[in-house]
Amino acid sequence: MVDSAAAATTVRARLAAKARANPSVALGGVCLLLVLVTGSIEPEYLSLNGARSSLLQAAPLGILAGAQTILMLTGGIDLSVTMIATGSAYVAASQSSHGAAVAILMGVAVGLVVGAANGIGVAVFRVNPLIMTLAMSGIMLGTFTAWTQTILRGSTVVAPFIKELAAGSFLGNRLPYSVVVWAAISLILIWLLRRTGWGRLLYAVGDNETAVRLAGVRTWQVRIAAYIAAGILGSIAGILLAGRTGAVDLQLANAFLLPSVAAAVIGGTSIFGGVGGYTGTILGALILSVLNSMLTFLNVGQDIQQLVYGTIVLALAWGYAGLANRE
Amino acid sequence: ALPMAAEEHTHDEEMPEGGFVIGVSNTLVGNGWREQMICAIKAEATASGMVDEVIVVNRNGGPTEQIADLEGLISQGVDAIILNPTDREGLNAVIEAAIAQGIVVVAVDQAVTAEGAYVATNDQTAYARLGAEWLFETLGGSGKVVEMRGIDGVPADTDRHNGFMEALANYPDIEVVASTFTGWDPSTGAQQALDLITTQEIDGIWTSGIDYPVVEQFQVADKPFVPIVGADNNGFVAQLLDLADEGLVGAAVTNPPAIGAVGTSIAIDALLGNNPPHETILTPKVFATDNTDGLNAIYAPDEQVGWSTYVDIEPFTHYNGSADVSACKAPGE
Amino acid sequence: MNRDSRATVVFNRTGLILSRSGWTLGVWLLLLALLIWYANLIPRFGEFQITSISKNSLPLVYLALGQAVIVIAGGIDLSLGALLLLSNAIAARFMADQPLGAVVVIALLLIGLIACLNGMTGYVIRLSGVPDIVVTLATSYIWSGLALWILPSPGGGTAPEFRWLFTGSESGIGGTYVLPVLMMIIPATVVFLLSRRTRLGLSMYAVGSDSNIASLAGLGVTRAKVASYALGGALAALAGLATVAITGTGDPRFSVGANATLNSVAAVVLGGIALTGGTGLVLGVVAAGMILIMLNPILSAMGINPNNAQILQGVLIAIVMMIGGLAALIRERQT
Amino acid sequence: MNRPSPLLTITGVAKAYGSVVALEAVDMTVRHHEIHALLGANGAGKSTLVRILAGVHPADRGTLVVAGKTANFRTPVEAMRGGIATVFQDPALIRDLTIAQNLRLSQTNPDTFAQWLDEFDLGSLDRDRMVRNLPLDILRLVDLARALALNPKILLLDEITAALTADQAEKLFELLDRLKSDGCSVVLITHRLAEVMRICDTATILRDGRNVAELEVGGITQQELVHAMLGSPVDLAPDTPAGIATPTTADAEAVFAVEELASGETVRQVSFAVRRGEVLGLVALEGQGQERVFDILCGERRPSSGRILIDGSPCRFLSPADAVRQGVVLIPGDRLQALLPSLPVYQNLVVTLITRIRQWLGLPADERARAANAIDSLSIDTRAAAQVRRLSGGNQQKVAIGRWLVSGFRTLLCFDPTRGIDIQTKGEIYALLRKLAADGAAVLLYTSELAEIPLVCDRVLVMHNGLIVDEQVAARATEASLLTAAHGLV
Ligand SMILES: Nc1ncnc2c1ncn2[C@@H]1O[C@H](COP(=O)(O)OP(=O)(O)OP(=O)(O)O)[C@@H](O)[C@H]1O
Ligand SMILES: Nc1ncnc2c1ncn2[C@@H]1O[C@H](COP(=O)(O)OP(=O)(O)OP(=O)(O)O)[C@@H](O)[C@H]1O
Ligand SMILES: [Mg+2]
Ligand SMILES: [Mg+2]
Hints:
The complex is a heterotetramer of chains A (327), B (333), C (335) and D (490). Chain A has 327 residues and is an all-alpha fold. Chain A is 76% helix and 1% strand. Chain A has a domain at 64-278. Chain A is built from 14 helices and two strands, in the order αααααααββααααααα. Chain A has a two-stranded antiparallel sheet. In chain A, helix 2 packs parallel to helix 13 and helix 7 packs across helix 8 (177-195). The relative contact order of chain A is 0.18. By secondary structure, chain C is an all-alpha fold. Chain C has a domain at 54-285. Chain C contains 14 helices and no strands. Chain D is α/β, with parallel strands linked by helices and 490 residues long. Chain D has two domains: 8-230, P-loop containing nucleotide triphosphate hydrolases (Rossmann fold, 3-Layer(aba) Sandwich), CATH 3.40.50; 255-486, Rossmann fold. Chain D is globular. Mean pLDDT of chain D is 87; it is low at 237-245. Chains in contact: A-B, A-C, A-D, B-C, C-D. Chains A and B meet through helix 3, helix 6, helix 11, helix 13 and helix 14 of A and helix 2, strand 7, helix 7 and helix 8 of B. The complex binds adenosine-5'-triphosphate (2 copies) and magnesium ion (2 copies). One magnesium ion is lined by residues 46-47, 89, 158, 393 of chain D.
């Protein structure tokens, strides 16, 4: 009796230790569990189609959460990233008549410019990132609302190439191109964070900026580059989203703001900087996408949906912190 | 019973000849439908020739913020206020205060219960009922449908849901297999649609206005189209016209933001002392794929996908179609 | 000589207070300037406008005060707007057609209830070690869901006398400005005194400044944290009550809450409280809240179109913060 | 058997932070009326023991008996009620509040506090000053006065003298003597053995989380103390003793020089040159402008006038990056300013290698080897290398130095690098500084421990009131000669 209880605790302790050593495995387990729960609500979900549909949704979310991950590592955050996504998508769509390449470049330029502005505000003028990007989001909303009636007037149907990239699939309609785009971005991000000087500086700046500055680094450059990178990621996510919905309006990416932060946090990136990585974020984005599908299949009112969503996000964050803090 | 305001007016005998200042209060920034509503107000004000200035206040917020904005407009001394109310009852006090000062108040899109206010709305119950009836009829009275609603708790959504249920009551063989809340958000709606059409047998979809992203998902999923009901969004109308060859069957139900222009026209009438009726309810029109001419007539190829194509509302509007609305010019601009 | 040195002390003391509360003063001056400007722009500026400005600012001012307390104690609460919704929904649902006595009881219970709920949030944050922003992001969904569940669509009501208490008029408009001004001054003063003059308040500053040192110094970190969240919750409940008093109804829309949260954070920062915690005076936040509410009508009176007004508001916040950042930078370089 | 029972008895106390075992099993006895030294190398577990006694952390095992009663303090307040007052290794004052508010928070009686503070002639200290604006020595004394105001039975002082000036320390010792006779016992942690010899009655020595000896101070020598602490005899002088400036350094060209540097009222006129191969010492009492000089030299701050010359040509530092690119690097006094606390030792060491945008997309090929070299040559204890914050103070200091060994430099600015460092590590640091100089670097060393000067430096400058008031040959400088100059009495 006592023995089996003791055995159970050691097993649990060993499991906990394992999960701690490799948090991605724990997150993967949670993701799998959610997939199974969703599958029990809607059996058809456990099919190739279900998987494809979840991945399609996770791709833009994962990319936006990548932007948050980079910034959170430096102790920053970007509340304008969904506005950047929307703005880029808008520009890309309205420039679609000039061909996909021009459209995409113009779209990405939006992310570049806005990201740089955010970066300068935060790194040079030392504005709190939360406030800087909140203000920037308002500025962009006003600007784009005005522009939709002036310089961006006209069709916002996206170019066929973008549509194909965002929504099309290959290999017998199994593997969406957008997932390939996401995978490529993931590889680049993971490489940047783990194998480059800039990635290392991101962690360092997030941990102790003074120490990095005294080491001879111009930390403002690191930060500005981070905001620019986040802006570009926002643009790419926005353009993919535009391709998904086929056309753009100014609410395109709104719904992704809080989930983009949540995905990074669930994935184990600390909002205070210095700790985390993109692998966890990928899983975080997948988890949230599955959760969304689950809520769709649950067929309940928005009140219950919000209750379930909030509770699960809290439970996940708590569980993860429990693992991380137990040492 | 006429409100006190009418009495006040009687003692400046000669009726005003124009030169009005119209205040507009809106509480949703960046929403295409609302922007078009504001543009329609400006276009109608310009076309009427009676208005000197249109003052728009707009921000994201709820009744509290809107009350602040309305009181600001009152302080600025406008002649009429057109508002898209955030609440049916919460603004009554300030509206009645405005009316007491002789300001004409017109609530557009959503109703208010304030005494003496003019109300111009699209009939949301009918919007859903007409569309749903078209859908159920098209399905031959039986089949599995999805109801894609807007935001839970918003009056327009509740009205539309009621209209949908009214229609449903007459078709016992129609089964609603899923009911989702899109939040009137295109990407959310797209994802829900994709989740549903890839996993379930569906015969028809009714949407509360998130329509073209849903049609797009059939192409993403590479599934055959099912009959779909949406709003008079330009993008959806274009799809109904373009994809008819590929088997798309659908209906666009009008929910015109030009209701703002209707409100403007009513306000000017009231300011001129013409005593227009206090309640104007527009009944939606249904443009289905079997009516290509109708669809072609409302299609606006130069406008954006979110553009509501049904802009001319007789006898209220005096501007010259989509072009004027889209120019979005208030008097003097 | 003695006189002289006392004068120097007084002078130094004034200088100290000025330098320490310079930002607070600045925000109040900005508000004053805006109001004077506004008064000159519109045809008539009288009691109606003063009442309007003070009562309409109440919900945001309360919410921002609550956010300020939480930020000072080293947290941030993204669920305050949702708590406002919840309080607004419960109040409207249960106060409708009730006599004043019952309404007051409900109001007090509600403040207590929401203070407890948010105090619990604070406790969960301490217990779990999950950052504040994440926990409150999650609870914001929970509270909004609950609000929608309690009040499925807009409606409900409250007693006219209760509306009078916050707005100076039983209809919610055009009353005396005395009451809304009092309802702003009293809670603000109470929160200010609580935060600066009591041990509990100071321990919030301490915990926000450095919770490790605070615990070395023998302070109850958990107690301060929970207290700050509870106080923030109570103020959010008050904001919900003010909303029901001003509008006479309840509105459970998620977006209203989210918008209110963002405004409260903006007001806190504009009011001179660093998001890093441990510093700042809550009084500046009151003026900042009023500025944020009044900016829209003021810009509109200046003839600025709403899109540009939206841009201007963002630019204003960014520039004010940049000036703050630069000033800090220059101070660091010089002293 | 009428010997009184001890005031404090600790038996078998153990404490581990995760996988780091800070205390394995410690026994210690503090009697009435005694000043008890708690000694040990960096990381021996002294501060951990203090934190347990003060109720900050619970012990994993073991018992505390205070005045005959078993104590189980769960919070600092309980420990205070139990008669234990503590001055921790780092100031326990809230930086964003005023002194008065801090006193209010800790419910300290302001009058008693004022009396104690007056012992150090600080009775007139303005209580409305923000803690963040006060110098470290004042903060330590405020902490002390606050602890004394509790009227404790046992006073724990964790390296309090490290930040005090010589005369403040002297006043402290007089005060401790009086406390002792008034019936309060003191546990004093310090790395300065002279202090132990001067005022302590007993010493408990910790090594690697265990108590290895309990000695009566009266009968032993410093060497014996060191032997007990380290387990082996240690030569207090560095391997390569500095002599009188050798002809080569005297002739060597000035690598780094400043001319008429000034900054407001704090730094009024500072000129000097550091030559290749030279360690130039700088001494000053607390707050004479030395911090500002270092801030300017490392590029953190701009001077109001004056020039910095490198190899004879003037240059301007707009930021530390400019200084670092010219080979001028800083080891700050507060090591937290030089460390990435939650990152591994390795990352801390190599962070100096990527300072330019063109290096962003790669990593230096030889960085592993360089980092390993630095770890080796400084013998950094890497058991807790996963997070620098878990290293002991001494090892943290080594990391702060080590990161410059990795990237290389020409001029090294050291601000009090041995503050709070154990005696063995100190010796290692002295030797290292000499070696760096011998390899061609120029070193400017500010130190608060005057005894270090003859051990490491070639020449020494004395600063007073923003001016360089004296220059001496290090080998001939004595504590007395330096102190006289430091008080401006030349
Ligand atoms: N919070 C902590 N988490 C993990 N390890 C810790 C923590 N605090 C101390 N340690 C470890 O415990 C050991 C003892 O540390 P402690 O601070 O007690 O040493 P010390 O004797 O006071 O050294 P010093 O003279 O440098 O102050 C060290 O190895 C240190 O790395
Ligand atoms: N203080 C500054 N203010 C504005 N721009 C700067 C500043 N310092 C550097 N830059 C710009 O930032 C960019 C990168 O500068 P940085 O000096 O880090 O590059 P680098 O690769 O180290 O080049 P180099 O080897 O020539 O010094 C350059 O375009 C430079 O002009
Ligand atoms: Mg120590
Ligand atoms: Mg350069």
